[in-house]
Amino acid sequence: MSSPFLHSGRTVTRLMFGVVVALLPGLAASIYWQGWGVLWQIALALAAAVACESVALRLRRLPLAFTLKDGSVIVLALLLALAMPPLAPWWLSLCATGFAVLLAKHAFGGLGQNPFNPAMAGIVFALLCFPRQMNEWPALTVPALTVAGSIDALHAVLDGRPIDALSGATLLEHTRGEARRMVMVSEMAGAPVFGAIGGRGQEWINLAFLIGGLYLVVQRIVSWRIPCGVLAGVALAATVLYGVDDERYFPAPLHLFSGATMLGAFFVATDPVTAATTPRGQLWYGFGVGVLIVAARCWGRYPDGVAIAVILMNALAPLLDRWTRPVRFGEK
User: Fold this and answer.
1) What pLDDT sits at residue 44?
2) Mean pLDDT of the chain
3) Domain that holds residue 41
4) Which tens digit of pLDDT belongs to each residue from 136-171?
5) Number of structural domains the chain divides into
6) What was the pLDDT predicted at 297?
């Protein structure tokens, strides 16, 4: 006999709408610092995600309108687009979105059944198959948000050839390249890609996502344990490495406010389907994501590593739930 339950009144649609609202500050900061290409990527990802979702639902003979209105595919498309280079060619966005929706989500049974975060699975797929295009980011200077700038960005996306005047290395790419040439951290200081506490421009984007993430926590849309675990993992791992060799590794603030740290901590790692569910498991899950982010940035092949860290911890989430399962009443 099943127990009676009280409905909290929160539906999947309302939760997804709350996530979209929380993404707005980071979206605005991304457009301000990275240009109109962010909007073009969102438009491509949204169109491809809805189309692929519709095809998958038809093939699975599920109700189209009822399933689409939950908004999960919209959040998937937004997260994937924000993790893509703003001037990535159109076909790359379509391929990554198609992989995320058709294979990472519906091949496992759809919403609630996927073991890996679909958006990050699409990013990892694009990183492995098209590494050069995935590492072409715009120079993080304040762009002229004009009609001409939007047209230039659209041409870059459609032609598949980023404009030289707009392309440039981000902080993580710059420091990675300098480290390969055995340049010390003190010698990198003063480069134009550095901001006050993180990457130039990236620190403001991360701060905007932090504000949106705090909104999610206050509204209890996500648990505070996972983002706190991620930030603690990043800060502790970076501090330990910086203490070991401050001429080879960067301090914690630079890792916290560069790349996609805040986006990953509050919007990606907190996915309730693929993350750990027990209280202690969520803390360890987030901590593992944070440590892997720093490890990927310091020793991995790709500059950021948020997507890879989340996918790896998705695979360990069931094991963490098993190890940290609360003791039932009456058990020792």
Assistant:
1) 94
2) 84
3) 10-168
4) 776 655 554 554 567 777 777 777 655 544 455 566
5) 1
6) 87
List all residues 6 or more positions away from 155 whose beta carbon is below 8 Å from its beta carbon.
163
150 domain-assigned: yes
Global pTM exceeds 0.85? yes
Give the residue among 18, 132, 136, 134 at the shortest CA–CA distance from 78: 18
Q: Is residue 199 domain-resident?
A: no
Q: Is there a domain that residue 185 lies in?
A: no
CA distances from 63 to 3, 48, 319 (A): 29, 19, 34
Question: In this structure, is residue 81 part of a structural domain?
Answer: yes
- Tokens at residue 131, please? 């590494």
